[in-house]
């Protein structure tokens, strides 16, 4: 009789093989037992006084169970449960697999160095996960970094994860990636001229394409910014740093608000939304688009309130018609906004006078205050901006630059780091001079006062 789980020829063969193997084992065991019994009988015959008492012998013998084993085997067929999964094998050791060449950068969640694969001589980037302070085992956030990166590594514009390696302890975990020569932040700071419009289009298109891929796989990146975008010398963008990435769903589960580096953080996050979606990544892309055009971060707030003020200053204060329901967001309740109409218009056109109408339209669509009307990555890729002249330049025609990461520690200009895990602050503000009354005090942040805590 075949097991109810065996349904293919391969399974049947495997079941038969298992049966035969078990029968052979039983036969061998029985043979051994007989030999031992014969030896014991011979020994007993030679020295009858040393044979163990019957009761003791009863306790130690296990042949009784052997005797019923064949019966049990008949009634209990092996059940073959087959799963398609990768073979699990041990991680390689960092020291025996890689030679460290130079330190690239220490960020908020990891230390990155350039290294050489000792087997293939390929140059790679090693990111050491910061686990020293962990007391509860391997943190879920690091697990997410590895799983989301692994799920998206086939996209040409996502940095390729090669493997995970270990050091001497369980707190010594490294992710190994392809080495990429530049990050866009360092490059923007060092370039004599900003990218041409045709080059900016190429970069933006690649970024949108990778983001559309992540979103189609239900992955939120949650920390898109120029320092997390790598660029190789073949003009290809690679999204990196999945330290805050996670899977989401429909409807989105409750998610932490404290994500995305301040300057790239969407207004709904600043206003305390606990459910949010892919739109937060699109907002960050809008900020990156602006930064690529000028080489300067678009919205450089000093704190959460100041960030919101800068956003409203550029794009206008939201109204019930431009962002229905925004007042119900937790932090919006305690903020007072100026009401005069002069503050509700967008200043994008004035800020980017050289950008075409289609360009301003796409930037405005990415930087829409209401997340519901913000453009999706798929739709942005179809935008007129990419079809009008100048057309996006072929990636391989993009200029190349000497790689700082290749040899030395990069110069670092100030910019805020990714948020530290924990609770987001509750904002409470009172309009003093008004949002556009200027920043009187740093702590007050453009007329609002900021109270931390709950
Ligand atoms: N694969 C890579 N190749 C080259 N440089 C990299 C690579 N990955 C990261 N870097 C550099 O290291 C910096 C920090 O890495 P990142 O993954 O962003 O860590 P963190 O989570 O600490 O911000 C990046 O901004 C980039 O300059
Ligand atoms: Mg980073």
TrEMBL record:
<feature type="compositionally biased region" description="Basic and acidic residues">
    <location>
        <begin position="14"/>
        <end position="24"/>
    </location>
</feature>
<feature type="compositionally biased region" description="Basic and acidic residues">
    <location>
        <begin position="60"/>
        <end position="76"/>
    </location>
</feature>
<keyword id="KW-0808">Transferase</keyword>
<keyword id="KW-0547">Nucleotide-binding</keyword>
<protein>
    <recommendedName>
        <fullName>cyclin-dependent kinase</fullName>
        <ecNumber>2.7.11.22</ecNumber>
    </recommendedName>
</protein>
<keyword id="KW-0418">Kinase</keyword>
<dbReference type="GO" id="GO:0005634">
    <property type="term" value="C:nucleus"/>
</dbReference>
<keyword id="KW-0723">Serine/threonine-protein kinase</keyword>
<dbReference type="InterPro" id="IPR008271">
    <property type="entry name" value="Ser/Thr_kinase_AS"/>
</dbReference>
<dbReference type="GO" id="GO:0005524">
    <property type="term" value="F:ATP binding"/>
</dbReference>
<dbReference type="InterPro" id="IPR011009">
    <property type="entry name" value="Kinase-like_dom_sf"/>
</dbReference>
<feature type="region of interest" description="Disordered">
    <location>
        <begin position="1"/>
        <end position="76"/>
    </location>
</feature>
<dbReference type="Pfam" id="PF00069">
    <property type="entry name" value="Pkinase"/>
</dbReference>
<feature type="compositionally biased region" description="Low complexity">
    <location>
        <begin position="37"/>
        <end position="47"/>
    </location>
</feature>
<comment type="similarity">
    <text>Belongs to the protein kinase superfamily. CMGC Ser/Thr protein kinase family. CDC2/CDKX subfamily.</text>
</comment>
<dbReference type="InterPro" id="IPR000719">
    <property type="entry name" value="Prot_kinase_dom"/>
</dbReference>
<keyword id="KW-0067">ATP-binding</keyword>
<feature type="domain" description="Protein kinase">
    <location>
        <begin position="98"/>
        <end position="386"/>
    </location>
</feature>
<dbReference type="GO" id="GO:0004693">
    <property type="term" value="F:cyclin-dependent protein serine/threonine kinase activity"/>
</dbReference>
<feature type="compositionally biased region" description="Basic residues">
    <location>
        <begin position="25"/>
        <end position="34"/>
    </location>
</feature>
<dbReference type="GO" id="GO:0007346">
    <property type="term" value="P:regulation of mitotic cell cycle"/>
</dbReference>
<dbReference type="InterPro" id="IPR050108">
    <property type="entry name" value="CDK"/>
</dbReference>
<dbReference type="InterPro" id="IPR045267">
    <property type="entry name" value="CDK11/PITSLRE_STKc"/>
</dbReference>
């Amino acid at each position: 009789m075949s097991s109810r789980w065996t349904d293919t020829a391969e399974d049947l063969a495997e079941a038969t093989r298992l049966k035969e193997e078990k029968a052979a084992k039983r036969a061998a065991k029985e043979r051994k037992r007989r030999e031992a019994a014969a030896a014991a009988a011979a020994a007993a015959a030679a020295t009858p006084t040393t044979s163990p008492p019957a009761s003791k012998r009863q306790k130690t013998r296990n042949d009784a169970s052997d005797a019923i084993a064949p019966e049990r085997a008949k009634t209990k067929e092996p059940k073959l449960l087959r799963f398609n999964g990768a073979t699990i094998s041990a991680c390689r050791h960092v020291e025996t697999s890689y030679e460290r060449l130079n330190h690239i950068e220490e960020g908020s969640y990891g230390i990155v160095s350039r290294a050489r694969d000792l087997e293939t001589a390929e140059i790679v980037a090693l990111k050491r996960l910061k686990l020293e302070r962990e007391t509860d085992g391997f943190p879920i956030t690091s697990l997410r970094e590895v799983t989301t990166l692994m799920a998206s590594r086939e996209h040409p514009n996502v940095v390729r994860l090669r493997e995970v390696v270990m050091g001497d302890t369980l707190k010594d975990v490294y992710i190994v990636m392809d080495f990429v020569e530049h990050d866009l932040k360092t490059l923007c700071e060092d370039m004599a001229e900003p990218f041409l419009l045709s080059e900016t289009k190429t970069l933006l298109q690649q970024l949108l394409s990778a983001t559309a891929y992540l979103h189609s796989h239900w992955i939120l990146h949650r920390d898109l910014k120029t320092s997390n975008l790598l660029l190789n010398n073949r003009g290809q963008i690679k999204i990196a740093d999945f330290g805050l990435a996670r899977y989401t769903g429909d409807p989105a589960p409750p998610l932490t608000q404290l994500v995305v580096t301040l300057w790239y953080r969407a207004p709904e996050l600043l206003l305390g939304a606990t459910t949010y979606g892919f739109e937060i990544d699109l907002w960050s892309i809008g900020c990156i688009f602006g930064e690529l055009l000028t080489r300067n971060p678009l919205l450089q707030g000093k704190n959460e309130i100041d960030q919101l003020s800068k956003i409203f200053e550029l794009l206008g204060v939201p109204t019930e018609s431009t962002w229905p329901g925004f007042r119900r967001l937790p932090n919006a309740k305690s903020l007072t906004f100026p009401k005069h109409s002069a503050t509700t218009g967008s200043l994008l056109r004035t800020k980017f006078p050289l950008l075409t109408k289609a360009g301003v339209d796409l930037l405005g669509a990415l930087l829409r205050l209401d997340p519901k009307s913000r453009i999706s990555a798929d739709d942005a890729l179809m935008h007129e901006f990419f079809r009008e002249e100048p057309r996006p330049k072929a990636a391989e025609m993009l200029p190349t630059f000497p790689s700082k990461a290749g040899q030395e520690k990069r110069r670092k200009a100030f910019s805020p780091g990714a948020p530290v895990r924990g609770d987001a602050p509750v904002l409470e503000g009172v309009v003093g001079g008004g949002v556009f009354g200027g920043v009187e005090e740093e702590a007050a942040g453009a007329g609002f006062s900021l109270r931390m805590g709950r």
